[in-house]
């Protein structure tokens, strides 16, 4: 199975900050990497698919980048409504695997 | 709009089975596979498997073979997951999600399964 190592596990930032979250795969996943946001008590919501494609309706402050084994989610200017847990998903090969999550809070 | 509506919370005894449903609306049901995902505080998110909503063919994560059985009823646009021989380790929130070439797109609201005597 492909292991997804996500960092950091916890992040505290101020409104307006640029925030980055990373996922590292144990092998090349050919850019088949998605990012999801999960707010407390809610289902996950897809933000980014296939590394850098923004899901319809998601604010443009969210962006993704990466290739090979290393991928990044960037929030260009943190907003209060971005408080949530973020996790990555590789769907290059089965079984699909998730990162452990990054809990993002406001400082 | 695309919606996946899951059945309600379940309280089950060890050794029993539960069957969770996931009713799709807002799109052509057979356009996407339906996947199932387990979420716990300790293990995070785990992929269970998917069902081809057109053919009924299935693919399981080896870890969940023998534990989960996926079925589908095209006539009602509903997918089902049965969990058998339940133990406390099966206590979790279970999600269904539509699966296409872009990974998991839309998710159900989740179903809490609690296994306790």
Structural commentary:
The complex is a heterodimer of chains A (107) and B (117). In chain A, the strands form two sheets. In chain A, strands 2, 4, 5, 6, 9, 10 and 11 form a seven-stranded mixed beta sheet that branches. A four-stranded antiparallel beta sheet of chain A has the order 1-3-8-7, with no helix packed on it. Chain A is built from no helices and eleven strands. Chain A has 107 residues and is mostly beta strands. Chain B is mainly β and 117 residues long. In chain B, a hairpin with a 6-residue loop joins β5 and β6. Chain B contains no helices and eleven strands. The N and C termini of chain B lie far apart (40 Å). Classes of the chains: A mainly beta (107), B mainly beta (117).
Give the SSE map.
The complex is a heterodimer of chains A (107) and B (117).
Chain A: E1 4-7, E2 10-13, E3 19-25, E4 33-38, E5 45-49, E6 53-54, E7 62-67, E8 70-75, E9 84-90, E10 97-98, E11 102-106
Chain B: E1 3-6, E2 10-12, E3 18-25, E4 33-40, E5 44-51, E6 58-60, E7 68-73, E8 78-83, E9 92-100, E10 103-107, E11 111-115
Parallel strand pairs in B: 2-11
Antiparallel strand pairs in B: 1-3, 3-8, 4-5, 4-9, 5-6, 7-8, 9-10, 9-11
- Note poorly predicted spans of chain B: none
Q: Helical stretch count of chain A?
A: 0
User: Care to count the β-strands of chain B?
Assistant: 11
Give me the Rg of chain B, rounded: 13 Å
First and last CA, distance of chain B: 40 Å
Strand and helix order of chain A: EEEEEEEEEEE
Largest sheet of chain A: 7 strands, mixed
Instruction: Tell me the Rg of chain A in angstroms.
Output: 13 Å
- Fraction of residues in H or I helices of chain B: under 10%
Mean pLDDT of chain A equals 97
Which structural class is indicated by helix and strand composition of chain B?
mainly beta
Number of helices of chain B: 0
Multimerization state: heterodimer
The shape of chain B is: globular
The termini of chain A sit apart by 36 Å
- Portion in beta strands of chain A: over 45%
Structural class of chain A, by secondary structure, is: mainly beta
Main pleated-sheet profile of chain B: 7 strands, mixed
